[in-house]
Amino acid sequence: MFLRNAWYVAAWSSEVTRDLKQIKVLNEKICVFRTEEDEVIALEDACPHRKLPLSKGRIKGNTVECGYHGLTFDCAGQCVWAPGGGRIPSAAKVRPYPVHEKYGLVWIWMGNAAMADPEEIIDIPNFDSPEWGINSGDAMELQCNYLLMCDNLLDPSHVAWVHESSFAAPATKDTPLRVTKTETGIIVHRWMMDHEPAPFYKKVVEFEGNCDRLQHYEVRYPSHALIRAVFTPAGTGGPDGPLHEKTFVMDSYNFMTPVTETETRYYWFQLRNVRPDDEKLSRMMAEDVRHAFEEDRAVLHEVQIGMTNKQSPHIDLSIDAGQLRFRRQLEAMIAEEQMVDAKMDA
Ligand SMILES: [Fe+2]
Predict the structure, then answer these.
(1) Is there a single domain that holds both residue 144 and residue 252?
(2) Between 154 and which of 44, 185, 261, 322 could a Cys-Cys bridge form, CB atoms 3.0 to 4.6 Å apart?
(3) In angstroms, what is the span from residue 42 Cα to ligand 1's centroid?
(4) Are residues 182 and 275 in the same domain?
(5) Residue 159: closest CA among 122, 192, 181, 206
(6) Separation of 158 CA from ligand 1 center, angstroms?
């Protein structure tokens, strides 16, 4: 089940060109391309005649021509030419999807087009700030339901076992977690005081010795995560800590796009508050992050198989409180949306 009235990432902007391309979001096949004016267009990827995907056809100026019988559609999905010489049937149209480019990503609205407001796309305050560096983004296909990745991103504990060589430190095993419900999602966080920085961060923080570390794991509905890592010299962190001029902050943005019930396209990039123009540092961090996310991918693929085919009940632990709350609230939002849709259809 998916929330439909929401923005999802459809692709990196660089992946959408003048070539017709098929993407799949929430189980729907969609044809994306750019107009001659460089605007991104997204249309239902099925000609209404014999359902050949439009992405198998040809782009002609700002129209798409079906590769079977030449039916031609404009950017609004309206058929503007059909063979046979007669009138164009009124049902000769495909559904257009609202899209919007932001943060180098193409965002797509999957629900009622009248409700699509680009202002509701996640706000990333430091995205264009010259004080912040960016670890260039990437994407990967996950062989699991998108909510398993949302679970993972509300689960600061897993780093102790899944990311031993990068994000793990002894304190990540058993320091208690705090769960907060917000208007837009769930935050699970904890401060871990006075310990050696985890290997990935040890390479990038600009102070020596032990640290105080914040893990802030936040997922917003339907499936967008902000993972904030704060490292500050030991004694200067904590909820009321004075922090320090050498405090290191990394904001990791993660966007999960459901492809099917068991496939997800996972997009990400990170912003950091140190050495914004250091390309080498950006590359190193991007590579390390990709490596860590491959570790998640391997685990989540097996978890998907394990949970689908379980032969005995699974259990929940206290560390799962955040993800269970997130799932419950999202389920309620989906149920409400379906109820309203059913009323409108009646
Ligand atoms: Fe992870």
Answers:
(1) yes
(2) 322
(3) 32
(4) yes
(5) 192
(6) 7
Residues 45 and 77 in one domain: yes
The values of phi and psi at residue 186, to 5°, are -130, 140
Is 345 part of a structural domain of the chain? no
Q: Which of 86, 119, 152 is the last residue of a domain?
A: 119
Task: Show which of 88, 119, 150 is a domain's final residue.
Answer: 119
Question: Cα(323) to centroid of ligand 1, in Å?
Answer: 14
Q: Is 241's pLDDT higher than 90?
A: no
Summarised one tens digit per residue, pLDDT across range 201-226 is 999 999 999 999 999 999 999 999 99
Pair of tokens at residue 335: 């149920």
Number of Cβ within a 10 Å radius of residue 275: 13
Gap from CA of 155 to ligand 1 centroid (Å): 8
Q: From ligand 1's centre to the CA of 278, what distance in Å?
A: 25
What domain range includes position 89? 7-119
- Decide if 228 is inside a domain: yes
Domain identity same for 299 and 176: yes
Q: How far is the CA of 26 from the centre of ligand 1 (A)?
A: 23
Residues 66 and 82 sit within 8 Å (Cβ to Cβ) = no
Q: What share of the chain is helix, strand, coil (3-state, %, to 5)?
A: 25, 35, 40
Do 153 and 289 reside in the same domain of the chain? yes
Q: Is the pTM value of this prediction over 0.90?
A: yes
CA nearest to 244, candidates 270, 216, 273, 281: 273
CA of 141 to the centre of ligand 1 (A): 15
Q: Does residue 337 lie within any of the structural domains?
A: no
**Ligand 1 centroid vs 296 CA: distance in angstroms?**
5
User: How many domains does one find in the chain?
Assistant: 2
Instruction: Find the 321 Cα to ligand 1 centroid distance in Å.
Output: 17
**pLDDT > 90 fraction of the chain, expressed in percent and rounded:** 94
> What is the 209 CA–ligand 1 centroid distance (Å)?
25
